[in-house]
UniProtKB/TrEMBL annotation, chain A:
This is DUF1700 domain-containing protein. The keyword Transmembrane helix applies. Keywords: Membrane, Transmembrane, Transmembrane helix. The keyword Transmembrane helix applies.
């Protein structure tokens, strides 16, 4: 009978904690909320009489949602910082050169990036994948175009048969005005398609050889700052008290 | 926390109960969960789900070797710190007399 109001109270408490934890990653919030829910259940089953008053005192002891969230954020915010390089860095000449080279001659730039410790392995992988993807795209585009060009010239040659005066045997060069001059809509679409494919080709060639390396360099420039600005300098002292027992701890 | 876990594996609620015996250590009980989560992600503590005699399975926490060595370090630092403070207080006491 009294289960429902209790459940509602628990849900409201957890929702408030969740909201207060808003800026933490989903998986971390999920974990804290699951732990808290288990705790509440354990605590409830430890008391002989479960009613609203006992539940409230359990929630009280857990702590107010925003207080809980503040401590959680403090502790979670430094998560992983202990295992990362300790020094707070600014982009030095080396990193700048690496990023710029990645944009211009990415094979050299990426070697420098991989030799540096300023990026995480994950970011290095992503940054390397982008230009390689560009290379693969360009490669894929260039290879079949030789085969396709024959087919395309056939397609473009066909409209010539429609135009009455011209000799079909002497096919005009690709995309000449004679083709556009022919009245039926069919040839125009083939010409548009040809233009479209060549535009796409240019886009792929440019994007693959310059755009994606440039994107990779941008990504590196962006990723450089983020993990490093927050380091042990601020967290160091409190990380000790947070990880170890607080100073009043008696061994 | 690490010291408590050094005495054997525990689940969350047990840890809270033990910590609350040293009542000054725990302002709000809920804060041990973010702490445990962080210790786990730093590899100092590992977790295992176990069936409980009654109710849903429980998450048990246990020290990893890295956790044990971290505990040893903290303990040494704490002893050094306490000795330094004790020495300071004693010398001050000596002066006032």
């Amino acid at each position: 009978m009294s289960d429902d109001p209790l459940r509602a109270l628990i849900d409201r408490y957890l929702r408030e904690v969740d909201e207060a934890l808003g800026d933490l990653p989903y998986s971390q919030r999920r974990e804290i909320l699951d732990d808290l829910r288990t705790h509440i259940h354990d605590a409830l089953s430890a008391v002989p009489d479960t009613n609203e008053a006992t539940l409230r005192s359990i929630l009280d002891r857990l702590g107010a949602p925003d207080e809980l969230a503040r401590e959680a954020r403090e502790r979670m915010g430094m998560a992983g910082s202990l295992s990362q390089p300790k020094v707070a860095r600014r982009p030095g000449i080396y990193e700048t050169v690496a990023v710029v080279l990645t944009a211009i001659v990415w094979p050299i730039g990426l070697v420098l990036v991989w030799l540096s410790e300023s990026w995480r392995t994950r970011d290095k992988l992503i940054a390397s994948a982008l230009p390689l993807l560009g290379l693969a795209l360009v490669g894929l585009w260039v290879t079949p175009i030789r085969v396709d060009s024959r087919v395309e010239s056939y397609e473009l040659a066909t409209p010539v048969t429609y135009s009455p005066g011209a000799e079909p045997s002497v096919a005009p060069p690709v995309g000449t005005p004679t083709v556009l001059a022919t009245p039926p809509s069919h040839p125009r679409t083939t010409v548009e398609r040809a233009n479209w494919t060549s535009l796409l080709g240019i886009a792929i060639l440019l994007g693959g050889s310059f755009g994606l390396p440039f994107a990779s360099a941008l990504y590196l420039a962006f990723q450089f700052r983020r993990p490093k600005t927050r380091t042990l300098h601020t967290g160091g002292t409190s990380s000790f008290t947070a990880a170890g027992p607080s100073p009043r701890y008696v061994p | 926390m690490l010291a408590l876990l050094a005495r054997g594996e525990r689940y969350g609620f047990e840890l809270v109960q033990e910590l609350s015996r040293y009542d000054t250590l725990l302002t709000s009980e809920g804060t041990i969960y973010p702490l445990l989560s962080r210790l786990r992600r730093e590899g100092l503590v590992e977790t295992e789900w176990r069936e409980s005699p009654a109710g849903p399975p429980r998450k048990f926490y246990r020290l990893t070797p890295a956790g044990q060595s971290a505990l040893a370090t903290f303990r040494q630092q704490w002893i050094n710190f306490r000795q330094a403070v004790d020495a300071l207080l004693e010398s001050l006491e000596g002066e006032t007399r």
